[in-house]
Amino acid sequence: MQRCGFVACRPTGILLLFIALSATAVAQKNYTLTSPAGAITLTVRVADSVYYSLAVKGTPVVTPSPIALITSHIPLGVNSHVTKQATRQVQETIVNAVPIKRKNIPDHYRELTLSFRENFALVFRAYDDGVAYRFATTFKDSLIVEKEIATFRFPGDATGYLPLVQKREKVDIFHTSFEEPYTVQPLTQFKHDQLAFNPVLVDGGARKVVITESDLLNYPGMFVRGTLQNGLRGDFAPYPAKEEIQDGEFRQWIVTARKNYIAKTQGTRSFPWRIIGLAEKDGDLLLNDMSYRLATPAKQTDWSWVTPGIGTDEWICGANLRGVDFKPGINTATYQHYIDFASRFGMQYVMLDAGWSDNNDLFKITPGLDLEAVAAYAKTKNIHIMLWTLAMTLDRQLEEAMVLFQKLDVKLILTDFMDRDDQKTVAFYQRMAEAAARHKIMIMFHGAFKGAGFERTYPNAISREAVLGSEYNIWSEKASPEHDLLIPFIRMVGGPMDYEPGFYKNANQQTFRPLRDMVMSQGTRCHQLAMFVAYDSPMQIFSGNPSDAWPEIAYTTYLASLPTAWDDTVVPDAKVGDYLVVARRKDNDWYLAAMTDWTPRTITVDLSFLNNGSYRAFTCEDGPNATKNSEDYRMGYALVDKNSKLTINMAPGGGYVVKLIKLNDARP
């Protein structure tokens, strides 16, 4: 058997069968499906292979692209025979248990199901903002998936926005924290040996396409590789054959050998959805929640104990406090200080990040920290505790740890350093979310892959990282305003993301330095503030330094008052990588945020999305000197209504936030 690095490669016969079209192929037949509004047409051609293609208003967007599932039983989609077709149209509303972009989500689509003689079906759905397909099998015994063929071919010249995996030493390329900047290049330059994780964005000119997935359960996540043509092909981490513990401060399992298949699973099941999201306007990408709509609904119905909010985290700023009468660090006094800070300004949570216990033993509390005393003190201040955990430690001590967390009234746990998305690792996420749900505890994942609809199946999995965020300011210049204006259009299509904004030390291009003991952000103070509204995450983590925040009472109170779960979202204006203007509704009030890259901008926004009546507008915007001093901001007040217009002036790397409070429910 051939060996390809860590992967045992299968003989090429089936792949040759897939590529070489047989002279004795089944009769070719086309099937079509249109979106509810009629603009999108999906064509499925069944011949020697199954091909799908997409057109919008008659213009090709995806050219015929082959798909198949190569299994231990038979190649599904290669010389397969359709026995039945069925169509249906759905017009429902999903009520989101933990609202992210919107509480009530229209779920309107047309569906085509093709059943095949070979014990499988292909299900296609057409929405007005994209299409999706998935395989479903009906084998009685277990099934080994050796390979999945997922291709995405585009007409003409297309540009890809690709988070390219950087191979680490001593491990294969499928080990990644899913935190990379975007490489923007023609798809024809995307090489076979390059690997990108999803979501990825493809700009074909007339409209933009996002490739991602949903309902990722008991199956590996999808990466994409280049084809040196105008297309992408899916790739999947093979199943681990051998694992070893990689020692260090944060231990984790690494794969040292892999099987010659990607998944071993039950024979009767549905596989993950492959999503091709479509956007004519850039702002439509900010509204796309296909990954949520396509995911399996949660089994239980009572999620009232999942409570969004804003919490503090001391790790990025290193608890580098000043003006206190104790030595800051991982100790009781420091966390009581954080609790006092959160309570004073109206935040709801305080995180105890890495170091509160031995990383490898959750019951070995760090000397100097009285965890029970901290938890009891938090309760007196109506603050909830969140605890960081190392993934392999949590997995090993799971049930005992959950008992401890319940005893301490811990509301959320964060688990970290998985750095994989093979089938075995995906199963870990499900196991952790289910255990946490049994104990009514929320969970977040760092060192994680994108959500892929997981937050619908497990609403207590309230957010996750899978993004190059604030922590990168410690050691690099990667978390730039340009990057900040790419991730909401690309990464956020895959679900909520934990960026962890809130810096009070802000710098421009000339003054920024990555400094561990004096961490600063790139862009203005209001650029940081805008992230709390513009970025999807029901649990927003404030990573600023309380010592910087205490003196700025009005600003910090303003920040802490921002909601994190939204009843509705509209996008008045946006351009990928350049700027955005997003408006969110919470009850009767609206919150509007704007962000720009290093280019200063003036944008005029009409407020026609408001309801009738007057609103008090509380603004926080870049100050007159924000170009030189990125910490300069000013706050203002006005009365507005739906006929009003806002003029937003943003400095380089700037931002803007306005709270629009309904007049008959005004609050200071």
Automatic annotation (TrEMBL):
The protein's name in its UniProt record: Glycoside hydrolase family 97 protein
Domain Glycosyl-hydrolase 97 N-terminal: 33-297
PANTHER family cross-referenced by the UniProt entry: GLUCAN 1,4-ALPHA-GLUCOSIDASE SUSB-RELATED (PTHR35803), RETAINING ALPHA-GALACTOSIDASE (PTHR35803:SF2)
One MF annotation (Gene Ontology) recorded for this entry: carbohydrate binding
Record lineage: Bacteria, Pseudomonadati, Bacteroidota, Cytophagia, Cytophagales
Ranges of residues in domain Glycosyl-hydrolase 97 catalytic: 321-467
Residue span, Glycosyl-hydrolase 97 C-terminal oligomerisation domain: 565-660
Taxonomic superkingdom: Bacteria
Sorted UniProt keywords: Calcium, Glycosidase, Hydrolase, Signal
Required cofactor names: Ca(2+)
